[in-house]
Specification:
The protein is built from 3 helices and 2 strands, in the order H-H-H-E-E. With 90 residues, the chain is of the alpha+beta class. It has a two-stranded parallel sheet.
Length: 90
C-alpha cells in the first residue's frame, strides 16, 4: 500500500519482502495466542473498526514480550499499550 510505505510495490515485491522478513533467523511465529478477554485493554483506545487488527497484533506482541515489526508508520500512534513496535523501511 503506497500510502503506508511511501512507495509503490507490486504484489511480487511485497511477497519478496515478506519472505525476507520471515526468513530472518530472529523471526518467530507466536503461539499460543492470548484469549480475547485477556487483551481487552488493547481495544479501549480504538477510534474505529479499521484499528481492530492493529490492536490484536499489539496485544499478541505485548503478551509474548516481543517486538512487532511493521511497515506502517501509523501503527505507532495506536501503540501506547506496552507493546514494542518498530517501523521498518522497505
Amino acid at each position: 500500500n503506497e500510502a503506508i510505505v511511501g512507495v509503490r510495490k507490486t504484489p511480487a515485491e511485497a511477497l519478496d519482502l515478506l519472505a525476507r522478513i520471515t526468513g530472518d533467523a530472529l523471526h518467530v511465529f507466536l503461539e499460543p495466542l492470548p484469549a480475547l478477554p485477556r487483551v481487552a485493554k488493547h481495544f479501549r483506545h480504538l477510534l474505529g473498526h479499521q484499528q481492530v487488527t492493529y490492536a490484536y497484533l499489539l496485544a499478541v506482541t505485548a503478551a509474548n514480550t516481543a517486538t512487532l515489526l511493521t511497515l506502517d508508520r501509523r501503527l505507532t500512534t495506536v501503540a501506547g499499550t506496552g507493546a514494542e513496535v518498530e517501523v521498518i523501511k522497505p
